[in-house]
Amino acid sequence: MILAEVLGIKEALPPYLDPTLKIEDLLTGVCFASAGSGYDPVTVKLTLALSTDDQLQMFKGYIEKLKAAVGDERTALFLAKSLFIISMGTNDISVTYFLTPFRKTKYDIERYTSMLVTMSSNFLQKNSHFVGNFTNVTEGNLSIGSIGIIGISPVGCVPMQRTIRGGRKRNCAESVNQAAMVYNSKLSSSIMALNKSFPNPRLVYLESYGELNELIQHHNHFGFEVGDSACCGILNLEFGPFCALSLKFCKDASKYVFWDSYHPTERAYSILVSEIIKRTWISSFKNTFLVN
């Protein structure tokens, strides 16, 4: 996770399930993310990913390991300086809703996004209750177990959606982007409401739509040469391990906004993270965790 590197914590967050993890890794943050996951259980089944409940159980197991290693008091202080990042919902919107019939035949986008936000709210409340009940330590005005929730980016402009839904000119799929904005608006409002009920831990909505859209639409301004196609793959449909199967890669990924058909390049991510840091308080944290 580039955020950890930008904050100077560590070069990358190791996965929690890595059997070689050491106590030093636990003390500076780990990653509970599961590629392809989402709030919607249908998404989890489609991608064979770990569910939000699975990831929360891993987090609880992590806390027990930390308590066994350094004790309850130090664990409590550790959590007080930690940032938890949740990035979820993109696969629900872009894959489950727009690329399969399982939800679209039963829900319009208003109802589906409302359902996702309810699922997100339930997950955040579970997370908040767990961290909040574990400790009551507070340093200054810093809330324990602060959680940053990243909104959905303009997923209708990723290479895959352009190829599938963008026509001959491979334009952005505006219906997908509109769904993302509807979801983000509801998510932001939900987080504000939750903060009134659960002031500790602190929940913060992190905007990503505008920043990535700016990179895509004005990529030349940021030193990129390509903003609508991926560095890897042949058809702009490949992602993750399927990129390796295509055996086609660009010569210089730093010139591309997108690495594969869905994910930005490391350079693009670095710019996005830097913008988020400028607009928020997260630079004060010493430990980072990712749930996805």
Helices and strands, with pairings:
Blueprint: H1 2-6, H2 23-26, H3 41-47, H4 52-70, H5 72-80, E1 82-87, H6 90-97, H7 101-104, H8 109-134, E2 146-150, H9 159-165, H10 174-197, E3 203-206, H11 209-217, E4 226-230, H12 242-246, E5 256-258, H13 266-279, E6 287-291
Parallel strand pairs: 1-2, 1-6, 2-3, 4-5
Helix pairs in contact: 4-5, 4-8, 8-10
List keywords for this structure.
single chain; alpha/beta; 13 helices; 4-stranded parallel sheet; 292 residues; globular; two-stranded parallel ribbon; 6 strands; 48% helix
Please provide a written account of the structure:
The protein is an alpha/beta fold. It contains 13 helices and 6 strands. The strands form 2 sheets. The protein has a 4-stranded parallel sheet with strand order 3-2-1-6. It has a two-stranded parallel sheet with strand order 4-5. Helix 12 (242-246) links the parallel strand 4 (226-230) and strand 5. It starts with a helix and ends with a strand. 42% of the residues are buried. Residues 135-144 have low confidence and may be disordered.
- Which ranges are low-confidence, i.e. pLDDT below 50, for 5 or more consecutive residues? 135-144
Beta-strand portion reads 5-15%
- State the order of secondary-structure elements, H for helix, E for strand: HHHHHEHHHEHHEHEHEHE
Mean pLDDT reading:
86
Number of strands: 6
Termini gap: 11 Å
Structural class: alpha/beta
Total of DSSP H or I helical runs spanning 4+ residues: 13
The major pleated sheet works out as:
4 strands, parallel
Looking at the structure, what is the overall shape?
Answer: globular
Alpha carbon gyration radius: 19 Å
